[in-house]
TrEMBL record:
This is Zinc/iron permease. The chain crosses the membrane at residues 20-41, 62-80, 100-124, 248-269, 275-297, 309-329, 341-363, 383-402. Keywords: Ion transport, Membrane, Transmembrane, Transmembrane helix, Transport. It is a multi-pass membrane protein. Residues 156-175, 206-227 are annotated as: Disordered. Its main location: membrane. GO terms for molecular function: zinc ion transmembrane transporter activity. It is found in: Membrane. InterPro entries: ZIP (IPR003689), Zn/Fe_permease_fun/pln (IPR004698).
């Protein structure tokens, strides 16, 4: 994307063709980003829905490869080229520092990592507080043993707080009283707490009681399962919020780059150069739209939510916005000027850092390597997803020859 043409002779500038390119880019971007979203919001039979979900998953994986190649093939080389141009000040030359593009990309990825952590931490802290509160409520209902058994993911600090709450309840009824088969475990009781060996005995006894005498739904202990289900639902909500934040960040990085390439396209004078660049960008925007649309479709927005449509619209309009800016400044814009080179280089570096972090960490590592469901899926499914990932990267690498 480093076609830094100087628009000094406007006689060869085909305004109608450039305006047509604006709408063509909008159509290609909208088609790519809306394809996965519309699949999700369309009602099909159960079998068809299952197949569509599989297709969307494959499109998301294909999009991960697209985003990865966009950063490596389209952004970083352009950023290094712009920020190492001989016309730039000495600070960008050999006597200064020649790694500005890589440095800016790395700082963008580090800052993105910090911002994402801060944004998601408060949601997980809220879930942690809710979990502790539920556990205390279960103890007060006589469900202390069940709570400890089922809430195994409470960390040490939470258990300490829970034990401190226990000490305040000292003198209350022993939570394991009335459970048969625990006479031999009495020696393990200390200050009203239940220890590991005890829990195993209680679980075994309770399992027998549940099979022999199922508890009534309206009994205090009969609500434990529902309480714990609420906790799991809360955890799922936190995970979805985290993925939503990641999708917003991904869209920001893609949109930032799209505006820049729109300006580059609009300030290209020669018709032959413009047409070849336009065709390459149409494929580029469509593939990126598929990648982003797959992420948006996976967030599970309600049918009444405007978020998926607003996110899709912003992506579809980002490159046309850049083209409109480029058309407006075509008489004064000099793509080879020092200011233009630095601005484009910095923007491409920032976008590269954002997309590299998103592709490697949020998409590839999280949705493939650290995804238990993916690891336990069929061999055919795993092979298909890896092929889709590599094909996405290959497709954008080929497009990089022209754009």
């Amino acid at each position: 994307m480093s076609d830094n043409s100087t628009v000094s002779d406007l006689e060869d500038y085909n305004l109608s063709l450039h305006i047509g390119g604006l709408f063509a880019n909008m159509a290609a971007s909208a088609m790519g980003v809306l394809l996965p979203v519309l699949f999700v919001y369309t009602t099909f039979s159960a079998e068809t829905t299952s197949k569509i979900q599989s297709v969307i998953q494959t499109m998301r994986t294909f999009g991960s490869g697209v985003i990865l190649a966009t950063a490596f093939i389209h952004m970083l080389p352009s950023a290094f080229g712009n920020l190492s141009d001989p016309s730039l000040p000495p600070i960008f030359q050999e006597e200064g520092y020649t790694g500005w593009a890589g440095l800016i990309a790395m700082l963008s990825a580090l800052l993105l990592h910090l911002l994402e952590f801060v944004a998601t931490q408060r949601f997980f802290d809220h879930a942690k507080e809710l979990k502790l509160k539920k556990a205390i409520q279960l103890q007060q209902q006589g469900g202390r043993v069940h709570a400890l058994d089922r809430l195994q993911d409470i960390d040490g600090s939470d258990k300490k707080e829970l034990d401190e709450a226990d000490s305040l309840e000292e003198g209350r009824k022993n939570p394991v009283a009335g459970v048969t088969g625990l006479e031999e475990a009495d020696a393990c009781l200390h200050m009203g707490h239940v220890h590991g060996g005890e829990i195993l005995l209680v679980n075994k006894s309770n399992q027998h009681r549940q099979h022999s005498h199922p508890e009534k739904p309206d009994s205090p202990n009969g609500t434990l399962s529902g309480e714990l289900d609420d906790l799991h639902l809360e955890e799922e909500r936190q995970e979805r919020r985290s993925r939503t934040i990641g999708t917003y960040i991904l869209e920001f990085g893609i949109a930032l780059h799209s505006v820049i390439i729109g300006v580059t396209l609009a300030t290209t004078i020669t018709t032959s150069d413009f047409v070849s660049l336009l065709i390459a960008l149409l494929f580029h925007q469509f593939f990126e739209g598929v990648a982003l649309g797959g992420r948006i479709a996976s967030l599970g927005f309600s049918r009444k939510s405007l978020s998926p449509w607003l996110l899709s619209a912003w992506f579809a309009c980002s490159t046309p916005l850049g083209i409109a800016i480029g058309i407006g400044i075509r008489s004064t814009y000099d793509g080879a000027s020092v200011t233009a080179l630095i601005v484009q280089g910095v923007f491409d570096s920032c976008s590269a850092g954002i997309l590299l972090y998103t592709a490697l960490v949020q998409l590839m590592a999280t949705e493939i390597n650290a995804n238990k469901a993916f690891r336990e899926s069929s061999l055919h499914h795993r092979v298909t997803q890896f092929i889709a990932l590599w094909l996405g990267a290959a497709a954008m690498a080929v497009v990089g020859k022209w754009a």
